[in-house]
């Protein structure tokens, strides 16, 4: 006979009847408050790096996965992982463990555009710029 695992109020099944240590959805709701909390504690640099990150998963035993879409932020946060883990555990009042990941796919999608790319896009998509180029002949030069 198959073993029936209990469900949490969210409908998630957890083995051996164990409730998860933290709910990812609830952690995400308070993420921006955590960033503000860090900024107020004069941890502005860490808070700035965390703005390029998002909470992606939380295991039932409290391992919180944070994905960074900026490699530099990922590297800086890796160096400060112990302090960040302590701050997160303190803020959420939960004994969370951190696993920081670099999301190269998102990094490629969010790279800042150069001025030349922005001007090229403007000349192709902005009606005012297209009109000026068509009527007066010329191109955008930075």
Walk me through the structure.
It is a single chain. This protein has 142 residues and is of the alpha+beta class. A hairpin with a 4-residue loop joins β1 and β2. α2 runs antiparallel to α3 and α3 crosses α4. The termini are far apart.
Name the shape in a single word: elongated
- The N- and C-terminal alpha carbons lie at a distance of 73 Å
The secondary structure category is alpha+beta
The total count of helices amounts to 8
Poorly predicted spans: 1-15
Determine the CATH topology of the largest domain: GMP Synthetase, Chain A, domain 3
| CATH architecture field of the largest domain | 2-Layer Sandwich
Number of domains: 2
Widest sheet, order of strands: 1-2-3
User: What's the alpha carbon Rg, rounded to whole Å?
Assistant: 22 Å
Average pLDDT: 78
Fraction of helical residues:
40-55%
Total E-strand runs: 3
- The CATH homologous superfamily of the largest domain: DnaA, N-terminal domain
Q: What can be said about the biggest beta sheet?
A: 3 strands, mixed
């Amino acid at each position: 006979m198959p073993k029936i695992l209990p469900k949490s109020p969210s409908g998630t099944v957890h083995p051996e009847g164990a409730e998860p240590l933290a709910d990812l959805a609830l952690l995400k709701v308070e993420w921006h408050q955590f960033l503000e909390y860090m900024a107020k504690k004069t941890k502005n640099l860490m808070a700035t790096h965390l703005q390029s990150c998002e909470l992606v998963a939380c295991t039932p035993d409290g391992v919180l996965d944070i994905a960074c879409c900026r490699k530099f932020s990922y590297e800086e946060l890796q160096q400060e992982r112990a302090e960040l883990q302590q701050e997160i555990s303190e803020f959420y009042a939960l004994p969370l463990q951190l696993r920081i990941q670099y999301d190269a796919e998102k990094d490629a999608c969010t790279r800042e555009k150069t001025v030349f790319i922005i001007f090229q896009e403007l000349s192709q998509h902005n009606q005012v710029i297209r009109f000026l180029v068509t009527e007066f002949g010329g191109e955008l030069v930075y």
